[in-house]
Design goal:
By secondary structure, the chain is mainly α. The protein has one domain. Helix content is 79%, strand content 0%. It is built from 6 helices and no strands. It is globular. It starts with a helix and ends with a helix.
């Protein structure tokens, strides 16, 4: 909610999340390789995109996906980012259609990523299994 108000995710919150995610990595018995790949599979492309297109993502959003990747692993980090982007995209379409913001406006992206992270943590296995069953 801080991101909604200030467009900033404080480093203290990201550090706290990093520590919680370290514990979750062990509780969920994640492999170290999955966790390391999870840390970078979303945060690194976000960082690189931010270098090419300045202010496309905030540093807090990048750190949020980095920290959550430890607990999620690469599969569920991708799922969390997809869900966050989908929800934020739907909200942005609503804002543009109702003319509450123009195309160059910015939104707080962290809350939508957080929703995606929560859903991926709670229901990631079921969502991925359901999706893979659609393909077979």
């Amino acid at each position: 909610m801080i991101d909604f108000d200030t467009m900033i995710i404080p480093d203290g919150l990201n550090i706290a999340m990093f520590l919680v995610c370290l514990v979750l990595m062990f509780v969920r018995q994640m492999s170290l390789v999955d966790s390391i790949i999870g840390m970078f599979c979303i945060s690194l492309p976000m960082f690189l995109l931010n270098l090419v297109i300045p202010d496309s993502f905030g540093g807090g959003d990048i750190k949020l996906m980095f920290a959550s990747g430890i607990a999620l692993g690469w599969k569920y980090s991708l799922l969390a980012a997809f869900i966050g982007i989908l929800i934020a995209g739907i909200y942005c379409i609503y804002l543009i259609l109702t003319k509450k913001v123009d195309k160059k406006g910015h939104i707080a992206f962290g809350p939508y990523l957080s929703i995606g992270i929560f859903i991926a943590l709670c229901y990631g296995y079921e969502i991925v299994s359901w999706y893979l069953n659609l393909l077979m």
